[in-house]
């Protein structure tokens, strides 16, 4: 594979926020997982564990998660960012506004933006969800290794025409997720990846995010 081909795959991948209901064949999901596990991890510990839902199991999870989001108390295993300031706040706002503009939510319309946010908990209509966890004892480096796995999963999926979105929002309700999936307390639930075939006609999929130039994040020495 050339860098141009790899860059094309990286550029074509984007976070999908509206899926068609048709399932992805199990052999394709297996191939995505088989490729994703190739990522490096410290000491080759491969700390990721993945629960993949399909069919009625995804629907059962979606219903329970929507109920939890309406009634539960946020308690993620991994603390969410304390704040976003400066350029990080700017970028966060830019991608939020791009989504809201795409789906027709006016700036300042809190009810409409909250409704769009709730789409996270219906998994954006995806037919599959992967729950990613890491051993508590490996701490932040286990989470870091799993981040690489999540990225590779999304790229391998894209290579097969399968759209995806990593979702920290799903990890909001830690105790509920541990109970629902029977995940022991010695594992940290990091995020979910909802995936399936994209609904190309949905406005939520009509925008793309920008990236900062090298001059904004690289410091050359020597
Ligand atoms: C760890 C992680 C968690 C994320 N959580 C959410 C989420 O809960 N909800 C959401 O809509 N997008 C979520 N995203 C998607 C990001 O918003 C998205 O990757 C970013 O805006 C860049 O856009 P792109 O993926 O389309 O290139 C998450 C991405 C990552 C890597």
Automatic annotation (TrEMBL):
InterPro entries in the cross-refs: Nitroreductase (IPR029479), Nitroreductase-like (IPR000415), Nitroreductase/BluB (IPR050627)
Signal peptide: none
Single GO molecular function: oxidoreductase activity
Gene3D superfamilies associated with the record: NADH Oxidase
Domain Nitroreductase: 11-197
Presence of the UniProt keyword Membrane in the record: no
Protein keywords: Flavoprotein, FMN, Oxidoreductase
Entry keyword annotation includes Zinc-finger: no
Name under which the protein is recorded: Nitroreductase
